[in-house]
Design goal:
Layout (H helix, E strand, L loop, with lengths): L1 H49 L2 H6 L6 E6 L3 H4 L10 E6 L7 E6 L10 E8 L2 E9 L5 H15 L4 H8 L2 E2 L3 H6 L1
Antiparallel strand pairs: 1-4, 2-3, 3-6, 4-5
């Protein structure tokens, strides 16, 4: 009887050790998986808020949007500009309501001779997939009004909102409200 009890206790201990090993494996695996997921989401958020186009390109939580801005001067966007290699940065309005703005860095080449040129950018966060120079008639009056409001706001450098637009990559404020105040 004593021998049977010892064997059953030994089997129970062996079974408990096996379960403990299995639980430890699954706990470590689950913790590692959750840590990797949290680090991945953190990396995607970091890339979005810092405007890193390489990270935004692979971010599955962002969707492509179309943004518009006024084409800068020829000297600023020229591919022959050694300082910038033709890349330039501007605020693009992503919504006709004027409440979604993204600062994009891109290259378009020079104006093909349009009288009042604007730029249309197809982008995902800070990643610009395609950019085209379009005439003013291509845009609605709401987009043009928003861009003029932003220009007015940025010319008034003493407002706190000016600093917001200097240091942010994405802004969700209505420009007309900010420039009127």
């Amino acid at each position: 009887m004593d021998k049977v009890n010892r064997q059953s206790v030994a089997k129970k201990i062996d079974h408990d050790v096996n379960l403990k090993t299995r639980y430890r494996f699954w706990t470590i695996s689950l913790a590692t998986l959750l840590t990797l997921i949290a680090a991945g989401i953190g990396l995607l958020l970091f890339g979005y808020y810092q405007g890193i186009d390489t990270i935004d390109r692979i971010n599955p939580f962002l969707s492509y949007e179309v943004g518009y801005t006024k084409l800068p001067s020829s000297s600023e966007i020229s591919p022959r500009n050694k300082k910038t290699d033709g890349y330039w940065t501007a605020w693009f309005t992503d919504s006709p309501m004027g409440n979604e703005w993204t600062k994009l860095t891109l290259t378009t080449g020079e104006n093909p001779g349009l009288k009042d040129p604007y730029v249309m950018a197809y982008h995902k966060g800070s990643f610009v997939k395609e950019a085209r120079i379009v005439p003013r008639t291509y845009l609605s009056k709401a987009y043009v009004s928003n861009l003029k409001g932003l220009e007015t706001l940025l010319k008034t450098k003493s407002t706190p909102d000016y600093k917001l637009f200097q240091h942010q990559i994405h802004v969700s404020d209505t420009i007309q409200d900010l420039s009127v105040e």
